[in-house]
Automatic annotation (TrEMBL):
Annotated organism of origin: Solimonas aquatica
GO biological process: DNA restriction-modification system
The keyword tRNA processing appears for this protein: no
Family matches, as Gene3D superfamilies: Bipartite methylase S protein, DNA methylase specificity domains
Record-given protein name: Type I restriction enzyme, S subunit
Amino acid sequence: MKASDALTPKLRFPEFEGEWKSVPVGDFFDLADRAEKAASFEKEKLLTVRLHANGVTKNEKTTLTGGASYFQRRAGQFIFSKIDLLNGAFGVVPAELDGFASSSDVPAFSFNTKHAPAFFLSWLKSSYQRLEIERTGTSSTLKRVSPEAFLKVAISAPTKAEQQKIAECLSTLDELIDAASQKLDALKAHKKGLMQQLFPREGETLPRLRFPEFQDAPEWEQKILGGLSTIVRGGSPRPIDGYLTKLPDGLNWLKIGDVDKESKFVTQTEERVRPEALSKTREVFPGDLILSNSMSFGRPYILKIRTCIHDGWIAVTCLSKLIDRDFLYYAIGAPSSQSFFNDQAAGGGVKNLNADIIKSLAIAHPTVAEQQRIASCLSSLDDLIAAQSDQLEALKTHKKGLMQQLFPSPVEAEG
């Protein structure tokens, strides 16, 4: 590849020609602009950069160190963390944090008028994980990127007009992503509110909202989950590495990491175990419900596959004819059920559920016909949420691919 090729992106707007130039990052900033030292200020006025979030926030929990120097920051300045720049800890000081202060470990620079700030930010978001910058320091976990080293990093830049065009294009995509994200949040909030209305609150046996065709239906009954199903715990053959196999006769082996936390169904596993493990584990089947009994416990999932489960799972099997499977899924996930699990879970730092706690969960339920109507309504809403989530991920993927096309690969700084 010719050196000039590295300075030109794969995709350009048709109205622009000419080779991009390699300039140092410092060319985007007014380096003569010096920050005013903050002699004293309230802790609530401390400014930090959020790790992994490309954003700026105030941090009221930070302990101020007497030996550190603090400087006032202004709205619109670029700010980054020396320690976590390469993890995405950078952003622009928002208007509401104008006048806040940060330590010398979180430096800030004012943009000049030679370039488009939005172009620089888009480039950095697409490149920070690939930048080759020497970090210095005695501790491997606290090595820092010096401002001097960062300002020498080379960036390929076109004319300011082309920079602005690229930034506008990506800004339009960001607006679409934000709108899709807001719609997804709104759908999730609607579902949460609807479940609070469709299921009885804790200590009650009737919901606040019923479908019109069931207004005159009998009152809901209440039974413990153990009276409506069989509750069993998984089992773990040990050492598990001795039972793992890639042979076709292996049995599915479900781990916590195999399950998408936002999903309703379990559809696959990454690993399999040898058939001999069956005597030391538990096999569950399509249609069974499973719940994790530790960490993010109590969140139900419906199996679509036959699999073995370890002792970190509890299965709800052999459902009574009085209960609809999909209704039970939503009933276990309802706020009152989740609140019960949180209250009953044992443990200090890490709380745990056990089979007896899950068996004792009170499940209020109407007739099967009304159960199916409720489940159908919520399933339709879940389908909308899944479709919106897919749309959001598609937009993010499109933006990521577009940024790879609109920006050349990072060019190493000379010298």
